[in-house]
Amino acid sequence: MWGKAFMTQDIKEVLLSEEQIKKRVQELGDQISKDYEGQEIIALCVLKGACVFYADICRAITVHLKMDFMSISSYGDAQKTSGIVRINKDMDTSITGKHVLIVEDIMDSGLTLSYMKRMLEERQPASIRTVCFLDKPERRECDITPDYCGFVIPNEFVVGYGLDYKQKYRNLPFVGVLKPEIYS
Ligand code: IMP
Ligand code: MG
Question: I need a labelling partner for 120 at 20 to 30 A (CA). Which of 2, 7, 33, 180 fits?
Fold first, then answer.
């Protein structure tokens, strides 16, 4: 029925359904709106992986926020981080004295976010917090935890809802585990 290029054929298992994601993102938005009541946020999207989550979480937040984007690469096309973070595009907004909320797709080794936090702290914001859609704590290589987290997941390589394998599968509306034959 489906051609070979149909991406859902490459998925072994759906880990998080569209409904589960929607519900959890709303809960996170409610929590963040409560915690930042009366304040303004600079919501920083870490491209590309966070783009889908970012669009949803921003619309679930009810306090004033300004959007900004940073593009970094830490992964290349492989499944394991190199630990080296390259900034392809920096943010446009000055964050000095502002409340920054970094929006990320997943915390894995934690190296990307600890690097980003250290770099942004030098710009002297009023505060920095992180919201990660997913967290894989088993893989952590440094001392960092997200301030807000959508779901804690096991140590499996997942795609969808912004997360990619070799730049593909970001447009899957759910989070799934890839069939091993796709990457072996
Ligand atoms: P960290 O620096 O190891 O925490 O890596 C974080 C980045 O690795 C994320 O922003 C993702 O781009 C990527 N990553 C880690 N785990 C996965 C996964 O399971 N699927 C897709 N990308 C992942
Ligand atoms: Mg990413």
Answer: 33
Q: Which of 35, 56, 90, 108 is catalytic?
A: 108
Of 172, 145, 147, 148, which is closest to residue 158 (Cα–Cα)?
172
Ligand 1 pocket test target in 10, 71, 81 with most atoms within 8 Å of CB: 81
pLDDT tens readout for residues 43-99? 999 999 999 999 999 999 999 999 999 998 875 555 566 667 888 999 999 999 999
- Compute the radius of gyration of the chain from its Cα atoms: 16
Task: Enumerate domains of the chain plus CATH numbers.
Answer: 18-153 (3.40.50.2020)
Q: What single-letter amino acid sits at 172?
A: L
Is 92 an annotated catalytic residue? Answer: no
Measured in Å, residue 6 CA sits from the centre of ligand 2 at: 23
